[in-house]
Amino acid sequence: MVTAAPVSSERISPTAYATGYFWYRHGLSHPALATAEGRRIDGFMRPVLAAVQRIGGFSMTALMLARHRGIDAMLSRAIDEGRVGQVIEIAAGLSPRGWDFKRRYGARLTYVETDLPHMVVLKRRLLEQGGLLTPGHRVVELDALAEAGPRSLDVLAAGLDPKVGTAVVTEGLMNYLDPDTARAVWRRIAAALRRFPQGVYFNDLYLREHNVNLPAAVLGAMISAFVRGRMHVHFKSADEVPEVMRQCGFGDILMHRTGSIRETQEYAGTKGGDAVMVLEARV
Ligand SMILES: C[S@@+](CC[C@H](N)C(=O)[O-])C[C@H]1O[C@@H](n2cnc3c(N)ncnc32)[C@H](O)[C@@H]1O
Question: I need a surface site. Which of 29, 138, 198, 236 has the fewest CB within 10 A?
Answer without folding.
Answer: 236
